[in-house]
Amino acid sequence: MDDIVKAAMAKWPNVPNCFGWLGLDARGQWYMRDDRVQAAGTFQQARGSLLRHEKLVDFIHRNYAADERGQWYFQNGPQRVYVELEITPWIWRLQPDGGVLGHTGLA
């Protein structure tokens, strides 16, 4: 987890959690789900906008974790943004050298 995120959590410890705003598809792509998209249905029914900003996606990857109940979230500063999963919290890809790499870039 990024130091700036840890500092924000310490400074604002009581920020409510966020649900429904972020989705991860079966290919390891992130989607932003605004109010309109959420009203249209579940992540499987209405994905939202594909996140293409490389630095934002990298930030999500570095701050992606599971809570004590096994629910996956992105720690966005002091706020936990719980992720709607299409299938699984980790998407693994076979690399040309035979290695395996996760969607976050971790092996």
- What distance separates the N and C termini? 17 Å
Q: Please state the overall shape, judged from the principal axes of the Cα atoms.
A: globular
Low confidence ranges = none
Number of helices: 3
Helix content range of the residues, please?
Answer: 10-25%
Features:
single chain; 107 residues; alpha+beta; duf1285 like fold; six-stranded mixed β-sheet; two-stranded antiparallel ribbon; 3 helices; 21% helix; 31% strand
Summarize the structure.
By secondary structure, the chain is of the alpha+beta class. It has three helices and eight strands; from the N terminus they run αββαβαβββββ.
Fold and architecture overview:
- The protein has 107 residues and is an alpha+beta fold.
- The chain has helices at residues 3-11, 35-39, 54-62, and strands at 18-24, 30-32, 49-50, 64-66, 72-76, 79-85, 92-94, 100-102.
- A 6-stranded mixed β-sheet has the order 3-2-1-6-5-4.
- Strand 4 (64-66) and strand 5 (72-76) form a beta hairpin.
- The radius of gyration is 14 Å and the shape is globular.
- The chain starts with a helix and ends in a 5-residue tail after the last strand.
